[in-house]
Every structure is written in C-alpha cells, then in structure tokens.
C-alpha cells in the first residue's frame, strides 16, 4: 500500500504545525538562525571545561590547519608524531610537512588506482558494473587510512614543514583533484582498450608509465616537487643552535624521528558493531589502498569499550592517540563540543535526530560512516577508572573550541568513534593475534572505507 499526499492530508499537516506554539517559536527562530545553533543547549556549553585527570606531557604547537582539503588523516598522524619528536629535540614549536606526504600520496594513489583498473579489466569487471562504476565515481580523493600512512612514511620518510611548505592546491585541493579525476577516467578507457585488443603486459606497462609521467607533472605543478635532500636548522629551548642535514626525508625519519615515534609499532583497531562483522576478526576493503606492493589496510574489529580502554592507557603513558570518527553528528562546531546532549532536537522539531538508529543500523542504512581523523591528548577517568571525557586536537586552526581543541564525552565516543591507533605494547596478545588472520574482504563501497574517500573540506562544521 502506498501513501498519496492529497491536498487534504497536507492541510492536516499544516494545521497541526501551525497549532503548536513550540513549532511556531522554532519556525521563527530558524528563519534567521542555523538550525543547530537554535537547538544548542546552553547548560551543556557552560558546564564544559578542559580540565582532565590525565594529559600528555606537552601538546604540539602550533595548532595546525588543513584548510579546504581532506588531509585530516595526515595532519592527525603528524600531530601525534611531533609530540615525542619535539620532546626529543627539546623544542617548543614544530610541524612536519603535511604537503610532503600529500604529494607522494597523490602520486602513489593515482598509480594504485590505474593498476586496480587494469586488474578489474583482466578479471572481467564491466565498466558499468557496480565495482568499476563506484571506483570511477571518485578515482582520487584526499582521505586515507592508517596503513596508508605507514606505506608513505616507510617509503618516503618525513621532513619539517619549513623545508617543504604548503601550496595553494595543498590547502585548496578540489581543483587539482578534479584535473586528476578527469585524467584517471580517460586513462582507464585507454587501458581497457589495450587490454580488450589483446595487448600484452608489456604494452599495458608502457601505457601506465606514460600516464604516470603525466600525473607526476600535474601533481608537481600543483604542489611543487619535494626536495631530495634538505637541511633543517633550529634553536632548542636553551637557545642552542642545531643543524640536521643535508639529509633525505627517509634518512631523517629513520635517524631522527623513528626512535621517538615508529609508525610500524602502531596498530589500528576498529569497532564495527554490525551483526555480520564479528568482533575478534580481521577485515579489509576491496580496492582500498594507496601503494602498489604496499601493506593492506587491515581492520582489527573489537568492541568499543576496548578502544576506549586502550586509548586511555596510551594517554596515561604520555602517548597521544590517532582516531577516526564521524565528526558532524551531535557536534557544536564553534564551541568544539562533541556530546550526545549538546543539541535539543526534540524540543525544536518534535522528533529525535541522529540517534533514532543504533550504531550498527546507522552503518547499514547509510546514516553513519567515518568522516574525520583527529588526536586524543587527554582523558578524565572516574574513581572506577572509566573514561568520562576526552580532549581532542583538531586540524581546523584555532577558531574552534579551546584554541583548536575539542572536548568529547565518552557517550559520544561510543556512538561516533570507529577506530583508534595505539602502540602495540598496549594491545593484549589475543587482540594482536587477530592481525595474523587472512582478512575478510568487505566490498569497495562499505562504509568502513569512507575515511579514505574524503572530499576536500569546503565548509567546516
């Protein structure tokens, strides 16, 4: 049976809304205001404070800003990495070059995509089939996952931001991405034509090499070419002069950064409560990666309470935590508050919003997915050592929250955090053993792959 919206039925709806004093008041308020500002609970804003029982010794400075790009995963990683590095160098302020890793991710990601298109063609996937259509919809995006960061850093290293600074297209990546997307779709057609005509592997490899030469030119023009070697000069807190280099970025990572923060010692755990995806199992997402021959993106699925416990253990030991979440739900952006009760939708609209489905059903019905990566730097534990609230380092500049830092309740964590990265020393042996499993492959369009498909941030919440 279907419902037809008759004029009588619409009139009934209108009469009901107009007869409600609360709806009329809300309508007047919403006429000139952001609906989320209208729903904001004043008492929740007032009672928030950035005092925590456990906090990393020194947070990174300055507060970083990814601008209009989807590089949060890179920023969050380098924000975590710089804390122990700054301590080792005895310096007050430092940033690693986010643009440097962004450059190599674009190059590697395009090559990965084109090789996947060759693989799909050889295994008989049709262009208009769901898999290839999905991949062609967004051939290159800004997002990424932890294992992709490990691929980049262990192959290319890192460098100070002063040695490879931001460009317009690093901070505003949409135009560059559109150019790359156009070329990748064109290249896909050309590769499939060669394969369909019976071209051998050598012919495909020759075409790939030519295509990647053009990709390299485009990315270089937009982002600049990173230096093969650099020298970094700095004063430490005692005003003593230091110089590192000339040195390659990979040597810099291996010789000066790795001892403070080794990305290969950090493990990614996720929480996916969907009934079909059991805890204690390893998963991956089809065609999700950024480097041919690189490590796979592996999800070790565990209950959310374990993720909270391990995050708290890491912070208590002085180590910040990289994490992925759905940032926009129950979030007061200007105030920097992530709290399930920060907005009173019920009083304003007469219905609940965001929480009408459980976390598992939100994933199933397209209401939830990972959209942003940030960093935990502090936690408050109650008398029973259960986490109550978290301090979050964001990468949207100093204008949000407390000079760029957000506050998150543990109730919000349970609903909207999906993954964390902690050192393997904090992870129980039975959880570590999951990484030895052959991962179950989720389809390319699964929501657990969403963080790696992020578009540039055009409007921050």
- Quaternary arrangement of the chains shown? single chain
CATH second-level architecture = Alpha-Beta Complex
How many helices in DSSP terms?
A: 17
| CATH structural fold name | Cathepsin B, Chain A
Report the mean per-residue pLDDT as an integer.
Answer: 96
Assign the CATH superfamily: Cysteine proteinases
Q: Helicity level, as a percent range?
A: 40-55%
Distance between the termini: 40 Å
Structural class: alpha+beta
Low-confidence stretches: none
Count of structural domains: 1
Beta-strand percentage? Answer: 5-15%
Biggest sheet details: 12 strands, mixed
The count of DSSP E runs of length 2 or more, i.e. the number of strands, is: 14
What Rg, in angstroms, do the CA atoms define?
24 Å
- Gross geometry: globular
CATH class categorisation:
Alpha Beta
What secondary-structure arrangement, pairings included, does this model have?
Elements: H1 7-19, H2 21-31, H3 35-39, H4 42-46, E1 54-55, H5 72-89, H6 98-122, H7 130-137, H8 146-156, H9 168-171, H10 174-196, H11 201-223, E2 230-235, E3 241-247, H12 249-257, E4 266-270, E5 281-285, E6 299-301, H13 304-316, E7 321-325, E8 331-332, E9 337-338, H14 345-349, H15 359-364, E10 372-381, E11 387-393, E12 405-409, H16 410-416, E13 417-423, H17 429-432, E14 440-442
Parallel strand pairs: 4-6, 5-14, 9-12
Antiparallel strand pairs: 1-10, 2-3, 4-13, 5-6, 7-10, 7-13, 8-9, 10-11, 11-12
Question: How does this structure look, described?
Answer:
- This is Bleomycin hydrolase.
- The structure is a single chain.
- A hairpin with a 4-residue loop joins strand 8 (331-332) and strand 9 (337-338).
- This protein has one domain: Cathepsin B, Chain A.
- It is globular, with a radius of gyration of 24 Å.
- The model has no long low-confidence stretch (mean pLDDT 96).
- It starts with 6 loop residues before the first helix and ends in a 19-residue tail after the last strand.
- The strands form two sheets. Strands 1, 4, 5, 6, 7, 8, 9, 10, 11, 12, 13 and 14 form a twelve-stranded mixed beta sheet that branches. A two-stranded antiparallel ribbon has the order 2-3.
- The chain is of the alpha+beta class and 461 residues long.
- The chain has helices spanning 7-19, 21-31, 35-39, 42-46, 72-89, 98-122, 130-137, 146-156, 168-171, 174-196, 201-223, 249-257, 304-316, 345-349, 359-364, 410-416, 429-432; strands spanning 54-55, 230-235, 241-247, 266-270, 281-285, 299-301, 321-325, 331-332, 337-338, 372-381, 387-393, 405-409, 417-423, 440-442.
